[in-house]
Write a structure and sequence with these properties.
The chain is of the alpha+beta class. The chain has helices spanning 260-269, 273-284, 327-334, 350-369, 371-391, 414-431, 433-446, 454-469, 475-483, 497-510, 526-534, 542-552, 560-572, 579-588, 592-602, 606-619, 625-635; strands spanning 62-74, 79-90, 97-102, 106-112, 115-116, 119-121, 130-135, 142-148, 156-159, 171-174, 194-202, 208-211, 224-234, 240-243, 246-249, 254-258, 292-296, 305-306, 311-314, 342-344, 450-452. The strands form 5 sheets. A 7-stranded mixed sheet has the order 5-4-8-2-1-11-13, with no helix packed on it. The protein has a 5-stranded mixed sheet with strand order 15-16-17-19-18. Strand 15 and strand 16 form a beta hairpin. Helix 3 (327-334) crosses helix 4. The longest helix is centred in the middle third of the chain and has 21 residues, at 371-391. The structure holds zinc ion (ZN). The site of zinc ion has 6 residues, from helix 4.
């Protein structure tokens, strides 16, 4: 997922104990105990690596291996209704209880070979939902659940025609990561349970359904669609979208699905996808998922992208007209290796997915667009990481984070992404690119289609890269990266000559040595604009903002990222000529990374809060539940 900067202030009162002690340490090195803070709870237990604290399921006893779905999409009632058949194996002989995760599902019946079996739906936990415990007969290995979802399902967004690009047809999409698959399918909603799946989806006849599975671009539009996912995937990668979608091929193995009015622009913007796929598999091992297609969602999609296998879900806010924001595509594609092929076993281990994916993203960008662009993106990534670190409590700056008792959605930050990638970059610099690439290729091969913990990774690192290059690596330092807060001193530094020129121009303008209109911005790209704006002083006066706006038409700028940076400056300095645009921006975009910092900044003054509340109330029905949840506290 691409979710940069989406960290939440901690809403839950948590026991601040990070007992992230790695269980495996090489001999002859000092063990680093990195317990961060023990806030008055001496009984707080150590984290058990591999224990999924965000699932009720019991895969150690009975594990689901295959899912067969048959669902009808009911736009009028905003529900999915049908059945899920789960095939399972007993990990413990004689195990008789299958425990599943659900959230707000109405269970109609649970049967084995057509005969009802006893089940119990547990009480609802606000974060985890309700356990569904099924008594399975001794000889059974498939159970079938008839159910329907709630219109408020946390993982499903229903859009009215008005909320789509084409305005004619409704739209539906799911977003399962981190723990939302359970709100539309009863299953073992844990990333360590991998299953294959097949599905039949019934929709209004004029609409097309697509899934994170085999999609046939030439399928007849008849309201009944069949899917097959032959590779075992974790539940958070199950995804469905339904809408007035069309397909355009971009290459032999790549293409794009989108509403008709968006299709051409999307295919043009993302035309380098096939090339990205080719360079990535050359460096890091073959692509294991057959096709790689993109689905462009309506603007309310709460994230940048979601790496649903074979079909990444993508926000339309990155269609900038100049490919300046396509690192998002590189990111979602890279997840085909780190995340989808080798998966984090629990949400504590998310950095294994996101850190290596972010590292691969930089590498792909460098291979396709050159070193200069990669350097600029690295600088911007590091600035974003630094500002997260300033705002985060220490225990949340740890790669192997303690999420017990918390909603994983509420603690996403740049730590697993950029800090994880920086760690990988340091390993690369120490052992050399060639050796590190070889290590990564072997790592993806070794753990293909497995879900692993941080501790398994650490053991593997020790047995491979560290064993070969122990003279260049320090085990204490590796532990510091993974189990301690902050960035170790001496970490790789981001630098860009192209940005040095921007720094120079900004400094001259601030010193009054040159008017804004005389700054030579003719060949500036999006990254330089972002860097120019993001590094302005916190306070500018009205004359300065007016001058910038007059010189560069910033209030009217089309690029959504540049607009974001400018609008943030406008809020912080109460520059009201930009506020009509600000209002439009907030009500037309639901991508949380873009709107949340604006709501947060607005919430800091009473006038700002009133403005935010007005926009939020207008926008709310079109926002995804996750975006609503992430921002509602700023306006109330
Ligand atoms: Zn990601």
């Amino acid at each position: 997922m691409e979710i940069r900067s989406l960290f939440m202030p901690l809403l839950l009162s948590v026991t601040l104990v990070a007992c992230n002690k790695p269980p495996q340490m090489p001999q002859n090195t000092e063990q680093t105990d990195v317990s961060v803070a023990v806030a008055g709870d001496p009984a707080a237990a150590l984290i058990e690596p591999g224990t999924d604290y965000h699932s009720f399921a019991n895969p150690d006893e009975i594990k689901v291996t295959h899912l067969a779905l048959d669902l009808e999409v009911d736009f009028a009632r905003q529900i999915l209704k049908g059945q899920a058949s789960l095939q399972f194996v007993r990990m413990e002989e004689g195990a008789s209880e299958l425990v599943l995760d659900t959230r707000d599902l109405a269970i109609d019946s649970v049967t084995v070979e057509g005969k009802a079996v006893p089940y119990e739906l547990g009480e609802k936990d606000p974060v985890l939902g309700s356990a569904l415990t099924i008594q399975v007969p001794a000889e059974a290995d498939v159970v079938t659940i008839d159910y329907q979802t709630s219109p408020d399902a946390s993982g499903v967004q229903w859009l009215t025609p008005a909320q789509t690009a084409g305005k004619q047809h409704p739209f539906l999409f799911t977003q399962a990561q981190a723990i939302h698959a359970r709100s539309f399918i009863p299953l073992q909603d844990s990333p360590q349970v991998r299953m294959t799946y097949q599905a039949t989806i019934r929709t209004p006849q004029e609409l097309l359904a697509v899934m994170s599975a085999s999609n046939d671009p030439d399928t007849e539009r008849d309201g009944e669609y069949h899917f097959n996912m032959p590779q075992p995937i974790p539940s958070y990668l199950i995804a469905l979208a339904v809408g007035n979608l069309e397909f355009k091929s971009m290459g032999e193995r790549t293409g794009v699905y989108a509403e008709p009015s968006v299709l051409e622009a999307a295919a043009q913007e993302f035309e380098d996808t096939e090339a990205m796929l080719m360079v990535t598999e050359k460096k890091f091992g073959h692509y294991r998922w057959d096709r790689y297609d993109l689905l462009i969602l309506p603007p309310s999609f709460p994230f940048g992208g979601m790496e649903n296998p074979r079909l990444s879900f993508i926000t339309p806010t990155v269609i900038a007209g100049d490919k300046s924001l396509v690192s998002l595509i590189a990111h979602e594609l890279a997840h085909s290796w780190s995340g989808n092929t080798v998966t984090n076993a629990t949400w504590r281990d998310l950095w294994l997915n996101e850190g290596f994916t972010t590292y691969l993203t930089y590498r792909i960008m460098e291979m396709i667009y050159g070193e200069k662009r990669e350097q600029m993106e690295f600088v911007l990534g590091m600035q974003s990481l630094e500002s997260d670190i300033e705002a985060l409590p220490e225990q949340d700056e740890v790669l192997a984070i303690d999420l017990r008792g918390r909603d994983p959605d509420e603690v996403f930050s740049d730590i697993p992404y950029e800090k994880g990638a920086l760690f990988a970059r340091e390993l690369e610099q120490k052992v050399g690119r060639e050796a590190f690439d070889r290590f990564l290729m072997q790592y993806f091969e070794h753990f293909a289609f497995q879900s692993i913990t941080t501790d398994t990774f650490v053991q593997y690192l020790q047995d491979t890269l560290y064993k070969e290059h122990g003279d260049k690596l320090s085990w204490d330092r590796i532990n510091q990266w993974i189990y301690e807060p902050g960035i170790p001193a001496g970490a790789p530094v981001a630098q860009s000559d192209a940005f040095a020129r921007v720094d120079n121009a900004r400094a001259m303008w601030l010193a009054g040595e040159i008017p804004a209109a005389d700054i030579d911005t003719q060949d500036w790209n999006t990254h330089q604009w972002l860097y120019f704006l993001n590094n302005m002083p916190d306070e500018l006066n009205k004359e300065q903002l007016t001058e910038l706006d007059n010189a560069f038409s910033l209030t009217q700028v089309g690029n959504n990222e540049i607009a974001h940076s400018w609008l943030l400056m406008a809020i912080n300095n109460w520059y009201t000529p930009a506020f009509d645009r600000l209002h439009n921006y907030l009500v037309s975009i639901g991508r949380n990374k873009l709107v949340k910092p604006l709501y947060k900044a607005l919430s800091e003054t009473p006038e700002g809060k009133a403005f935010a509340k007005k926009a939020f109330e207008e926008a709310k029905s079109g926002y995804h539940p996750l975006t609503v949840k992430a921002n509602e506290d700023f306006v109330n």
